Amino acid sequence: MRSPATWLERYRQRHDWALQAFDRFVHELAPEISDQVQRSDQVTVVVYGATQVGKTTLILDLLGLASSTHDEVARVLRGGQAGGKSATAVPLRYGRSPDDSWHIGDVGQLDAVQATRELAEVRRQVEQGVHQDTTLTDILIPRRLFPSDAENALEVDVKLIDLPGLDSHNGNERHLVEQLARRYVTVADLVLLVTQANSLGFLQPENLQMEELAQWASQPVRYRLVVTSAFSLSSVRKHFEQAPINVQVVRQAMIREIATLELHVPQNFVDNLYVLELGDSARELANEGSNYYLRIAPVISEFRHQLIADIKSSSGPFSRLYAAFQLDNVVQGQISMLRAAYEECRAGSDAQAQALQNQLSKKYPALLGEDWEFELGAFQDGLNAEQRAEEQLRVVLTELQHADLASHFQSVFASSSLATGERSVSALQDFLEKQKQRLKVRARTWTSGVDRLLQEKTGDETRARLDALMAQLPAITFDEEGFHATEGKLDSYSTDSYFWTSNFERDVSMLNFAIRASEKSCANEASRAFMVFLKRQIEERVGNIYSLKRQQKAVAADRDRLYEQHEQLKRLRSELATKLAGKRSALQVARHFERRINGKLLETLRAIRAGITNGPTATDKFLAVLNTRLLVNEAEKLFAGKRPR
User: Fold this and answer.
1) Is residue 323 part of a domain?
2) Which domain holds residue 269?
């Protein structure tokens, strides 16, 4: 390859070694990576921020749109929406029309009404989920709306992309925005992060909604921060109405505000911060004609001038190369953030787990270690026993419901004795009293008659279970009312002897009838009491089953809560490991780039050194010496992350 003959050629080629190394590095990457980092002659600048922070207004201002035509343009871009709502529904690339008509995508020669309808239809399709295309839509604004003198504006060949706001209320629009952000932000040469002065919290990593953006402050090559609506804030106005004001003073004031959010802005990023007043707030301040506006207007103008110059000089085909020199630091910063986030989550998870463990230790003092399955097994054993008892008792109940229990229990209360013998009133009264006492005793001890019933109707296990419950059988209340009529009749006699045999026989018959009726009543009461008892036992078993199931479920839930805490920590570790593995891959890419760039620099320096030794003329040798110094200086700037001028 021919060596450059003149110093001008050598100077123009001072970055060739780095560009060649970068191109070779990109060629060696996987396609999905190389597509994102390869150099392109097309400059891409993405404007990223929340809804209604002035992104579209900023872009139109940077393109040099006349301030007097902003309202007309805004009405069209809103697509029929009321003022104060987001104008952008799809990724838009703005430019200047070659004529005095609007051009939207492939549709050209539109007047303002037609253009408004076209954009309204696009928004309707996005909100209904019909339009999910992530390709850019070109909007060319009529030439007549731009001032004739547009020197202090960006060239129209800069791909200035306006993304929809991040916080749309429409779900379909939010989904599209996420896709758009990942497609365009990750491959942009330059990203303008736009936020209002009263919404600086947007800059916190969790609000940026993209991991790639979290390290914006450590990437001064790719990111610029634009703060809007600052000078119109009452607190800012009150401060700067008296204090000295210039670009650096305003920047430092914003840096202090950002620091209150625990965000650190490195010193090498400070000059990347721009504070502007746009749209309605800017016009309101201008219309005041106050001394305050006269003081801030030059500062706002200087910020705008610097931002335009910065975009022009900082974006271009070399931007990816310069960003690649910062890749190692960016990845290291991401790793630090991952570890910090993990430690914060781990500490919170550990605290929750310990609090839960303490709570469960008090709740289950007999639980040894983490033998939850033993505890649950004990509940299950009890549950099985209660369910088996309930099933057996139901079988007995079903069978007894079809049996004549009263006849069985009548044998418990029946007596072969009848009123006979001496024919006297007192003899019958004594017999009546003995029968009452006999029935009272049987009413208290009637449960002894259950055994024969259980022998006939139940198996051994059920009989044993019921035998254990016999003590719980209630006593039967003996009702003497059935004997009252007979007692009254006997008490009505004035003599003890019966003169008429018929009267004695009638009283004996009446007494024996009362005894048999009372025996039957006791048998019925015993039958009813036993069935009630049996049903109550079944109800108790059902209640115990429900209680055991509830307790078992509560224990299982407590166990699962504790296990979930452990699993959460495992997931955190796994997620960290997965993410760190990805970052280590990125570090390998960064170090591979360093190896390529270092190798190419050494190769180029060796070639120049050969020129020093073997140059055909003293001039060639001298130029080679100067060239060596030039390359070393440029390499130092690149490795320091500075953009060579």
Assistant:
1) no
2) 189-317
Is the Cβ–Cβ distance between 447 and 507 less than 8 Å? Answer: no
User: What dihedral do alpha carbons 525, 531, 532, 535 form, nearest 10°?
Assistant: 180
- What average pLDDT is seen over the chain? 76
Please tell me the predicted confidence (pLDDT) of residue 35: 45
Helix (H/G/I), strand (E/B), else coil: 251: helix
How far is residue 356 from each of residues 346, 567, 569, 572, measured CA to CA in Å? Answer: 15, 14, 14, 19
| 164 and 193 inside one domain | no
Question: Is residue 181 one of the residues assigned to a domain?
Answer: no
φ and ψ of 138, to 5 deg: -85, 130
The string of DSSP codes covering 83-137 is: TTS---SS-EEEEE-SSSSEEETTEEEE-HHHHHHHHHHHHHHHHTTS----S-E
pLDDT of residue 365: 64
Q: In degrees, to the nearest 5, what angle opens at C-alpha 157 toward C-alphas 151 and 163?
A: 105
- Do 86 and 159 lie in one domain? The reply is yes
How far apart CA 545 and CA 549 sit, in angstroms, is 6
Reduced to 3 states (helix: H, G, I; strand: E, B; else coil), residue 424 is strand
- The answer to whether residues 380 and 515 belong to one domain is yes
Nearest to 644 by CA among 272, 268, 314: 314
Q: Are both 163 and 268 inside the same structural domain?
A: no
Q: What is the pLDDT of residue 30?
A: 47
- The C-alpha atoms of residue 574 and residue 561 are separated, in whole angstroms, by 20
Query: Which residue has tokens 């060949």?
Result: 157
Mean pLDDT of all residues in 216-228: 86
What one-letter code names the amino acid at 501?
T
Q: If you average pLDDT over residues 309-336, what whole number do you get? A: 70
- Per-residue pLDDT tens for 67-112? 667 677 877 876 656 554 555 545 677 777 888 888 887 777 888 8
Q: Are 122 and 131 in contact (CB under 8 A)?
A: yes
C-alpha distances out from residue 432 to 421, 479, 492, 510, 511, Å: 13, 14, 15, 11, 7
Is the domain of 105 the same as that of 237?
no
The answer to whether residue 62 scores a pLDDT higher than 50 is: yes
Query: Are 164 and 197 in the same domain?
Result: no
User: Is 518 contained in some domain?
Assistant: yes
Q: Is the dihedral of CA 534, 540, 543, 544 positive or negative?
A: negative
